[in-house]
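Dear colleagues,

For the upcoming journal club I promised to circulate an example of a predicted protein-ligand complex. I picked one with PBG because it came up in last month's discussion. The inputs are reproduced below in full, followed by the predicted structure.
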Amino acid sequence: MAFPATRLRRLRQTSVLRELVRETELRVSQLVYPMFVVASGPKRTPIPELPGIDHLSIDGAVEEAGIAHGLGIPAVLLFGLPASKDPEGSGAWDDEGVIQLATRAIKSAYPDLLVITDLCLCEYTSHGHCGVLREDGVVDNDSTLELLARTAVAQATAGADAVAPSDMMDGRVGALRAALDEHGLSETPIIAYSAKFASAFYGPFRVAADSTPQSGDRKGYQMDPANALEAVREAKLDVEEGADIVMVKPALPYLDIIRRVKDETNMPVAAYNVSGEYAMVKAAAAQGLLDERAAVLETLTGIRRAGADIVITYHAKDVAKWLSQ
Ligand code: PBG
């Protein structure tokens, strides 16, 4: 009988030992909580596609931000559903637009809570694409940059602590940095959705944000799920253009991308555990197929282990409660 020379089980014997050698930590201070703010309507309306998440009025958003803040969550990420849409998405940069109003209201109630604004036109355009649509149905890159720049300035002027461009236009980070700097907003960080893939996992979000493209798809600007080298190029370009934090989105089918982007850029990396990833766990848990708490904590720990410093997740409030128990 040969005995094993190395016994890895020695350090797994008790929870104290396991904790002593644990390599990855999941903390509430690393979480960002996304919220959907509606220009008009009731304080809260449940979103059926995202169980546990509501459409919020401005008052509702302030209340929800207060709850997140009270749980120790450091940041919220705001998405807006405007009162009306047009082909250019002008509601995005309106000083009285839904996100600008919500940002001002939340910052005045909770100055210490970080407000990150998602920066994209798809919730504001009547056609649902993330930029200006040409006659041939293609999103025009460079005229979109101008509108995104206006939006960044409007959001930061309203008090956003960071802007997060999610449109995937070429050159947007440089354009936003220049516009912010010109307007005296050089201290506003840019959290770039650098490697954002054309994913099926945005389905519930698009219903919640009313941002499904009316024609075609987003494959002409969001990335091909098959490409990793290109994701690294995207991230490096965003860093050159001035991104302060780079993001990979979605998270679960792209854990290898999170790792590569972390290793190749050495930047703070955020990962977005998107709506479809959330909805899958909720649906399985509701059917009794999964232990929700264990599955969520394992998932988010995996995203952290892959290299994400920051995790954006609809589970944030639950996780904050579980981690404090
Ligand atoms: C806007 C945007 C999307 C998401 C975040 N910002 C949707 C899309 O690109 O269609 C998805 C987030 C989620 O699924 O939770 N461009």
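Two points we might discuss: The pocket of PBG is lined by residues 118, 120, 122, 130, 166, 202, 205-206, 211, 218, 274-275 (CB under 6 Å). The mean pLDDT is 97.

See you all on Thursday,
B. R.
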